[in-house]
Write a sequence for this structure.
């Protein structure tokens, strides 16, 4: 809350607030200022002032609620904004054969709401309880008379007819349907929720929508490849896009409601505080020491808040410059480091290998955070120390000004103090543009000054210990948030090779072709060989022109035809590596990947439902390397609160 001795809030700050906040602040300041004038100029007693202020507070509280509701974004506003961004994005992307953007449908508000109604049963009975929560898996109960599986299969001809080309081929359709609900949708949901968990604004940005579409593309390539002859890809893409949009819209609506509730609670709390402080000022008007005490408390709080605001922006600016100038923070360097610290780790680090193959984009963020941790901590400490120094200077100046001031009137004293504080902290919100007509006189100037002489207000580390600790913690959080946002932009494209899951390293905006330095053994992402479901240990570009590629019931010969048809954006990179790549003429992955496989094979085999080899060539796949257990849990670093 701003300094209530000057009851109106600072209008300098209002430029950064929303329209609803501007109106609320004006309402508070004008109403309370006008009432205080009349109350203080009359002979009203303290109890009469309390009654009058209580009535005014209740009236303003109702008006605050009414005005805040009028400025809150409605669900329809959020839906329309999200759909406008989505439609603009898919229209702007160049159409390419087999590109997901050619299959993404346009959604106007009417079509989206119609889809919500059409898919209500599907969403309520399957998506929310069994996909979003991950509470059930269909394969594990396939042989049982399941309340999930049976209604799903009974409904599929009516509810999911448009997903299948041959609606009468029940056997293949059942297999495909279970694959979609048991594997594809949970994985899609998990990745979408991972992206949405980092969003803190109540509207969707194009980058988020693009990432959601990219996730759908990756998941479909991973789990639907080979079923193209039996599945209607355009229809499935449309429904998966609808799911992604609905999750995104729900997230935005939740954020808007939360922020509105927090703002309303905070504003009403401020309203109550102002009422309390007015009463205290009036009550303490004849008690100089108490008057000085409350003045000091409010002034110190404002100095701390303003210092915090100013130096938080300085912190963000310093981090931005440092990270942008840091030569090691670029996509290719980070991916190289990620590979070296996982696949090529010495001693071998199974957890890092799992991070690399499970969520390469998040792992790269961790790598970046580790790189900049010392720099980040230094910048935070420098700015916090400078902030403490400025607070000390401000408090010292407060003491000097008060001792040299007449101290006849709180309003005039505050104005004199603000002039000096603005010299120490440029950008300090002075409130000098407000014409304050009401203020309190200081009854005993000598006693008022003596109070400040006896108070040790200069040792801010002691006097403001709790506030400084909160600021330090808040600065660390802000630094992590800023770094994460900047690094995600630097790391760029999140597309992954459908064959091995490696991340794209192309930093060009709106690029048409992906590439990566390090492609992996396909076994890491669950590709298998034949009916035995043995891990496919070859790199995704090895035997590119002579091996066949069987995905479920469809055969691709040679392997390149699959990428040419279904992953065109990766084709050029893999085609070139099949001719000139360092391992193009071999039939085994490089040594570091063979060692890495032995370190995580039990976990990967279980995760993807593979059957492990009964034995390995010990010269190529050292048996001395112990695999992590199949139940091993990866521990991710908390990138905001570390």
């Amino acid at each position: 809350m701003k300094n209530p001795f000057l009851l109106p809030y600072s209008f300098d700050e209002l430029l950064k607030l929303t329209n609803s906040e501007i109106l609320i602040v004006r309402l508070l300041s004008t109403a309370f200022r006008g009432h205080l004038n009349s109350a203080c100029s009359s002979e009203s007693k303290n109890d009469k002032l309390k009654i009058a202020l209580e009535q005014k507070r209740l009236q303003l509280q109702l008006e605050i609620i009414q005005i805040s509701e009028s400025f809150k974004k409605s669900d329809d506003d959020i839906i329309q904004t999200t759909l406008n961004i989505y439609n603009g994005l898919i229209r702007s992307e160049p159409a390419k054969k087999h590109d997901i953007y050619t299959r993404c449908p346009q959604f106007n508000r009417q079509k989206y709401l119609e889809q919500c109604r059409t898919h209500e049963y599907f969403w309520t009975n399957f998506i929310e309880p069994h996909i979003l929560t991950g509470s059930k898996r269909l394969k594990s109960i396939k042989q049982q008379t399941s309340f999930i599986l049976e209604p799903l299969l009974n409904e599929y001809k009516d509810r999911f007819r448009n997903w299948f080309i041959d609606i009468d081929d029940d056997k293949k359709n059942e297999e495909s349907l279970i694959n979609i609900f048991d594997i594809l949708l949970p994985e899609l949901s998990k990745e979408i929720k991972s992206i949405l968990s980092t969003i803190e604004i109540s509207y969707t940005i194009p980058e988020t929508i693009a990432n959601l579409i990219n996730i759908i593309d990756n998941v479909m390539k991973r789990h639907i490849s080979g079923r193209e002859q039996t599945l209607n890809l355009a229809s499935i893409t449309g429904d998966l896009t609808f799911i992604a949009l609905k999750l995104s819209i729900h997230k935005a609506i939740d954020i808007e409601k939360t922020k509105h509730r927090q703002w309303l609670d905070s504003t009403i709390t401020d309203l109550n505080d102002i009422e309390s402080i007015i009463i205290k000022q009036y009550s303490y008007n004849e008690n100089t020491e108490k008057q000085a005490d409350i003045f000091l408390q409010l002034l110190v709080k404002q100095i701390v808040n303003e210092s915090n605001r100013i130096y938080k922006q300085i912190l963000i600016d310093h981090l931005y410059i440092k990270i942008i100038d840091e030569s090691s923070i670029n996509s290719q360097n980070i991916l190289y480091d990620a590979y070296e610290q996982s696949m090529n780790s010495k001693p071998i680090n199974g957890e890092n290998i799992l991070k690399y193959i499970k969520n390469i984009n998040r792992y790269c963020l961790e790598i970046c955070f580790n790189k900049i941790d010392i720099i980040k901590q230094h910048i935070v400490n420098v700015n916090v120390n400078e902030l403490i120094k400025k607070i000390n200077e401000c408090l010292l100046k407060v003491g000097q000004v008060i001792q040299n001031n007449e101290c006849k009137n709180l309003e005039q004293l505050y104005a004199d103090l603000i002039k000096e504080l603005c010299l120490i902290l440029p950008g300090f919100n002075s409130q000098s543009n407000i014409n304050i007509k009401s203020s309190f006189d200081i009854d005993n100037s000598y006693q008022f000054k003596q109070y400040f002489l006896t108070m040790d207000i200069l040792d801010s580390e002691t006097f403001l210990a709790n506030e400084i600790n909160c600021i330090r913690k808040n600065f660390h959080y802000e630094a992590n948030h800023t770094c994460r946002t900047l690094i995600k932009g630097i790391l760029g494209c999140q597309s992954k090779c459908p064959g091995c899951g490696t991340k794209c390293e192309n930093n060009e905006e709106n690029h048409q072709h992906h590439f990566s330095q390090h492609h992996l053994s396909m076994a890491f992402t669950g590709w298998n060989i034949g009916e035995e479901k043995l891990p496919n240990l070859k790199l995704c570009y090895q035997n590119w022109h002579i091996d066949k590629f069987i995905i479920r019931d469809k055969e691709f010969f040679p392997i390149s035809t699959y990428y040419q048809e279904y992953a065109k954006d990766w084709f050029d990179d893999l085609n070139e590596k099949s001719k000139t790549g360092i391992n193009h003429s071999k039939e085994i992955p490089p040594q570091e990947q063979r060692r890495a496989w032995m370190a995580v094979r039990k976990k990967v085999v279980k995760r993807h439902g593979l059957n492990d080899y009964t034995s390995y060539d010990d010269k190529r796949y050292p048996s001395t390397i112990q695999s992590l257990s199949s139940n091993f849990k990866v521990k991710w670093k908390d990138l905001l609160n570390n």
Observations:
- The first strand starts at residue 528 and ends at 529.
- The chain has 20 helices and four strands.
- Residues 145 and 151 are 10 Å apart (CA to CA).
- The mean pLDDT is 78.
